[in-house]
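Person: At home tonight, work slowly through the protein below, taking as long as you need, and write a paragraph about the fold.
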Amino acid sequence: MSAQDEIPRIGEELEQARRGLQETITKVNYTVKQTEQKLSPEHLIRDRPVMASSLAAALGFLLGGRAEGSVIAAFVFGALLVGAFRSGSQRPEF
């Protein structure tokens, strides 16, 4: 086989490899976006409200055990929890 005969074959192999790589990149990007959405705090709180509330209560209890900042810590965690729930809901405001 001469070099002239191999050029089109090599070009076709490169094109197939490029298409395969593009498909793989598309699949990886899709998987990464899905994983990011599943691991987002809003998604975790929306899907597991009891766990999120328990975690917030436990953190509030641990931070509230100190004499200083117990009230502030409780308000901060409560505000974070309420904010996370509100960002996930689509309720109209009155």
